[in-house]
Amino acid sequence: MSIRHRSICLLLTDPLRCESSCLAAALTAAQWTVTERTAAAGLPADVRSGAGGAEPALVLLDMDEPLASTLAADLRARGGAGGSVPVLLRSDVAAAPSPSLVDAVVPRSAGIAAAAAAAAAWRPDDGANTLDRLAVAFGARQVERLAAGLRDLLVEGLARAEAARLAHRIVGFGGSLGFATVASSWRLMDDEEAAGPAWAAARRDARVAIAAIDRWRSNGPS
Fold it and tell me: Which residues neighbour 84 within 8 Å (Cβ) at sequence distance 6 or greater?
């Protein structure tokens, strides 16, 4: 998976919004490759089918409820690399959608710069490119097995009660496969009393890594 692919942001907007072009420009300036689509009538057909090109590393919904939860559920229902993509919502919703649908909410009242900054925290690191290099050295099948093992650990670790038990293994496994961001944030999770911000960062980095592994396994080694 090329470096470019880990920088694709799918921006789904409500056509009634007048800031979408400014938001897309801010994301582009932050080195995202932006694919912008309107979605008032539901998830675009090519996005739903995965026929719209490379899977994005991030989806940013610029809209309100109930459309946001509907689209997020449709995204998750795609399964595989399409279903695991992190989803951010830019909205001043009174109640955040389910974490199983939307990973984080960025208040619209905070401005466009805040949305671009929030998106930056969800950019994948170089882990998938390291998987490519390891696959050349050790064989694709062996590296895919290791990547699947890390993914399984991360999914299990996302159950908050399991984080401390699995943290040491995630740190070692993630670091050896090139997922340095995961290794760094999960070092703090071997303490069962780790503070909320530390858990939020660990959860975010796990979600990003899971999606990156899914894209890598879907695309195959480059």
Answer: 207, 210, 211, 214
**Nearest one of 32, 33, 37 to 14, comparing CA atoms:** 37
* pLDDT at position 146: 96
CA distance linking residue 177 with residue 111, whole number of Å:
37
Distance CA(4)–CA(54), nearest Å, equals 10
- Bridge partners of residue 60, in order along the sequence: 11, 88
Residue 207 sits at φ, ψ, to 5 deg, of -60, -40
- CA-wise closest residue to 163 among 128, 200, 127, 124: 200
Q: What is the pLDDT of residues 122-137, one digit of tens each?
A: 998 888 889 999 999 9
What is residue 85's DSSP assignment? S
